[in-house]
Write a structure and sequence with these properties.
This protein has 583 residues and is mainly β. It is built from 12 helices and 35 strands. The protein is 10% helix and 35% strand.
């Protein structure tokens, strides 16, 4: 126990030291209770606390404690080490010796392993090494040291275990989509990379460091995405029995497939039903050089073309309906290089005007007895939006379909009789056309009543002209609800709707005494009608004569019968008056 004194007090030699089993005895300092042979104290249990008394020559003292504990001597678990011969050449260079620590000490806690080239170095604890070259004949020496500085020394030897035989490979992969990436099955080269892959675990890595440390393994080597080339993939073959491994390098470079040019086929969508048939084989020569050098197949999906999935293969590429697909993907497989190219053929249906069949009732607009119209008026009966459409008109479907014998005056077409059918050929900007027709019928005219009487107005100044309210006769002209009336001085103006009388309630006749007025009657959803009536001025001329009588006499003046009212300059309103003053 004296070995503990320097740690208790560096000047321990200036004191008398004694050891006790209790604090009380240490305080008393009775040497009869002290441990008699502290330099050879037998500890008969795993640990014990001992009390130390340091006393000087003056009798002053101090006490402290020392804890005693039995520590096991470290055991060498494995002294003959197995090592993988990675190149199968009986030497492993610059080996990190710490990789053997766990094997040598096992589960012993707090034990360090130190390596030496000779037994003497181990004894002297000098010239420790951390790395070295190892062969099957190498012997090294180790010290196993506990935290309490207990040391166990031993030689260690090595036996070499062969590793799987591997071969580096170089492969050329087609960048089939020419996009710098390709999904590739790395496992197809296993037989070439590993001499005997049975009883081996095969792992794939992107770097040698990852392969060595088992980090970031490629989890799906059968669908590996090659994003750069040239590129190296590291293939690790692990012996399932010995766990020794070898790493092969798989060098990958890209080659490009034969370039293709995408194509587009167009057809008019006859019937505007979204269904037309295309022969996509007609564009092969425009897509790729020498199509006969390739195995060609057709698909409705691009990913199906990439893997030649027959589920989506087009059996008859000469008869492809757009209701099945609007895009066809053609796979050109080069049997020589194993590369394939995918070309796209767009099946475009050109918009065809979608027309309705119409019925149009027409009017004799100018009321001349002939039913004429501008055939453009029938366009909206067939299609509402006429923008960018060209209309031509025909009297038969055959003519319209063949674009022959068109109507030459469509802006002033006379309808010979009704019902009458007009066919229209309607073409869009893409020259696709549709044919439809409109049936023409005469529309009913607004009902008017015959007028036999004249509209009269007094001509007080007897000059043959006076003011008329033409609207007075409107109830006599038509009893149809909601009609309107326009007035003209001639039938021609009424037909052409020119020179309308703008003040029909305050109209002064332009022909003296008697004049004919023409009325254009306008109804709702019926054709206009023209009628006429006469306006007549009324002139009143009583038979009045001069009268002479003597001064002082009277005379009776009589305006005559047949008048509704009378007004004399005297203010009288009777038929006769008596006067006595000639003035």
């Amino acid at each position: 126990m004296n070995d503990a004194l320097p740690d208790i007090n560096p000047n321990y030699t200036q004191f008398t030291a004694s050891f006790y089993l209790t604090q009380r005895n240490a305080n008393t300092g009775d040497l009869s209770t002290a441990i008699p042979t502290p330099e050879q104290y037998l500890l008969n249990r795993s640990s014990r606390r001992v009390y130390v008394r340091l006393e000087n020559t003056d009798g002053c003292y101090t006490t402290t404690t020392v804890d005693l504990r039995i520590v096991s001597v470290p055991q060498i678990i494995v002294a003959e080490l197995e090592i993988c011969d990675f190149l199968n050449d009986d030497i492993e260079t610059t080996i990190d010796l710490s990789t053997f620590d766990a094997t040598i000490r096992g589960t012993q806690f707090g034990v360090t392993v130190t390596y030496y080239r000779t037994a003497q170095d181990a004894t002297d604890q000098a010239n420790a090494i951390t790395t070295t070259d190892i062969t099957p004949t190498t012997t090294l020496y180790i010290n196993l040291t506990t935290r309490t500085n207990c040391i166990q020394q031993s030689p260690i030897t090595f036996s070499f275990i062969p590793t799987p035989e591997v071969n580096n490979q170089e492969i050329i992969v087609c960048d089939n989509e020419t996009d710098g990436t390709e999904i590739y099955d790395l496992t197809q080269h296993l037989e070439d990379l590993v001499t005997d892959p049975t009883e081996k675990t095969i792992l794939y890595f992107n770097t040698l460091e990852d392969a060595t440390t088992n980090r970031l393994r490629i989890t799906a080597p059968a669908r590996y995405a090659i994003n750069t080339a040239p590129q190296t993939v590291f293939v690790k073959a692990i012996d399932n029995t010995t766990q020794c491994y070898s790493i092969a390098e798989l060098e990958i470079t890209f080659t490009q497939p034969t370039p293709v040019t995408h194509q587009k086929l167009t057809q008019c969508d006859v019937g505007a039903d979204g269904s037309e048939v295309f022969d996509v084989t007609t564009v092969l020569d425009d897509m790729i050089a020498t199509p006969s050098n390739f195995e060609i197949s057709y698909y409705t999906r691009r990913n199906a073309a990439a893997i030649a999935d027959q589920t989506f293969e087009v059996i008859d590429p000469t008869n492809v309906d757009t209701t099945i697909a609007s895009m066809i993907y053609i796979r050109f497989y080069d049997v020589t290089t194993g590369c394939y190219s995918i070309g796209e053929v767009t099946l475009e249906l050109l918009k065809t005007p979608k027309l309705l069949r119409g019925v149009l009732a027409i009017c004799d607009a100018d009321l001349d007895g002939l039913y004429t119209l501008d055939l453009e008026d029938i366009n909206t009966q067939m299609i509402q939006n006429t923008t960018d459409l060209v209309f031509t008109y025909y009297t038969s479907f055959t003519d319209a379909n063949q674009a022959i014998n068109g109507i030459t005056t469509p802006d002033n077409y006379t309808v010979p009789a009704t019902p009458h059918r007009i066919y229209a050929r309607v073409e869009g900007l893409n020259n696709c056309f549709s044919v439809s027709f409109v049936d023409l019928n005469y529309k009913e005219k607004v009902a008017v009543l015959p007028i036999t009487e004249a509209l009269e107005s007094c001509d007080n100044d007897l000059d043959g002209f006076t003011v008329f309210d033409l609207s007075i006769f409107e109830p006599k002209i038509s009893t149809v609800s909601g009609v309107s009336f326009r007035y003209y001085t001639s039938q021609s103006d009424a037909q052409k709707e020119e020179n309308e009388i703008t003040t029909p309630t305050n109209y002064t006749n332009t022909i003296a005494n008697t004049q004919q007025i023409f009325v254009r009657v306008i109804g709702t959803d019926v054709c206009d009608e023209i009628t006429s009536f006469t306006i007549q001025t009324i002139q009143i001329k009583p038979d009045l004569k001069d009268v002479s009588f003597c001064d002082g006499d009277t005379v009776t003046l009589d305006a005559g019968t047949g008048y509704s009212s009378y007004l004399w300059n005297t203010g009288a309103t009777t038929q006769t008056i008596t006067v006595s003053d000639a003035s």
